[in-house]
UniProtKB/TrEMBL annotation:
GO terms for cellular component: protein-DNA complex. Keywords: DNA-binding, Transcription, Transcription regulation. PROSITE patterns: HTH_LYSR. Residues 2-59 form the HTH lysR-type domain. GO terms for molecular function: DNA binding; DNA-binding transcription factor activity. PANTHER family: LYSR SUBSTRATE-BINDING (PTHR30346:SF29), TRANSCRIPTIONAL DUAL REGULATOR HCAR-RELATED (PTHR30346). This is Transcriptional regulator, LysR family protein.
Length: 304
């Protein structure tokens, strides 16, 4: 018999790349992770890992078992959702991770709506950068994530998530009010080729957007906080590319639309596949969709 708890350990290794990181995600010691993986190999009768000293990687058999582990995890989520649906009332707490502007625009209004219409449902909110929320969701640290997508690279989590589009917003360029283009109705990105930029840190997808639309930008300052970025722009330290709803007015800075087809940030809610029918999550998702600005006209992709 294959122990599904050990499949979870294998998935964590595939997600995080090292025994130590997998242990941190699962709150286990590296020794415990190694023991669980060795036991799983014995249960499968196959070598699942290649080992070079302290380094490990998945064998073809290990990669195949990760696919099955994802399917098992989804079925367990469906089982929990089905059992929860037998309960006559919707009551409990949902842990949610979201980036700051989505908390302001969608999460806070949804909480107010839930308080009025479903007082037995509560949210526990974590403010995290958009690209950090999906790992928390897949690790089981939260039940629902609000995150962002730019379609800059193919999705790698198709079999593990169900997505619910919330809204779409363009990026605008943020300029000091003394900038030569601050009074323009639109700005061509090429007109800023000689400007210095204030950008998110490497690894943040918003920085990737800048690197694609602006060839070789000269980056002077870095921050993942768009309010901090805007205040640096207002201080005359450069220009920035900011999602429209993440811009907050600061004296000395102005947001100007980009000419042509600007890059877009698609914001969506995500749950682990199989859990979308859980009564608590259905209630929270409905509140989030209702709170989303213009959600009926947003990029209504089918659920995946």
């Amino acid at each position: 018999m294959i122990d599904p708890r050990r499949l979870r350990v294998l998935r964590a290794l595939a997600d995080h790349g090292t025994v130590t990181a997998a242990g941190q995600a699962l709150h286990l010691t590296p020794s415990a992770v190694s023991q669980q993986l060795a036991a799983l190999e014995a249960e499968c009768g196959q070598q699942l890992l290649r080992r070079w000293g302290r380094r490990v990687s998945l064998t073809p058999a290990g990669e195949l078992m990760v696919v099955h582990a994802n399917a098992v995890a989804a079925e367990l989520e469906r089982a929990r959702a089905t059992l929860a649906a037998l309960d006559s009332g919707v009551r409990g707490m949902v842990r949610l991770a979201s980036f700051a502007s989505a908390i302001t625009m969608v999460v806070a209004p949804a909480i107010a709506s839930l308080r009025a219409g479903s007082p037995g449902v509560t949210l526990q909110v974590q403010d995290v950068e958009g690209h950090a929320s999906i790992p928390l969701l897949l690790d089981g640290e939260v039940d629902l994530a609000i995150t962002e997508e730019y379609r800059l690279s193919p999705r790698t989590d198709e079999s593990r998530l169900t997505r619910f589009p919330l809204y779409v917003e363009p990026f605008d360029v943020v300029l000091p009010t003394a900038h030569r283009l601050a009074g323009a109705s639109e700005v061509d990105i090429d007109e800023l080729a000689d400007d210095e930029w204030i950008a998110p840190k490497p690894g943040n997808p918003c920085r990737d957007v800048l690197m694609i639309v602006c060839a070789n930008p000269e980056i002077r300052h870095v921050s993942d906080d768009f309010h901090a970025i805007t205040t640096l722009v207002a201080a005359g330290e450069g220009v920035a590319l900011v999602p429209r709803n993440a811009f907050t007015a600061v004296p000395g800075a102005v947001a100007v639309p980009l000419r042509g087809e600007p890059p877009l940030r698609r914001v969506f809610a995500a749950v682990r596949r199989g859990s979308a029918d859980h009564p608590l999550l259905k209630t929270v998702l409905a509140a989030l969709l209702d709170a989303a600005p213009g959600h009926a006209n947003a990029d209504r992709e089918s659920r995946t």
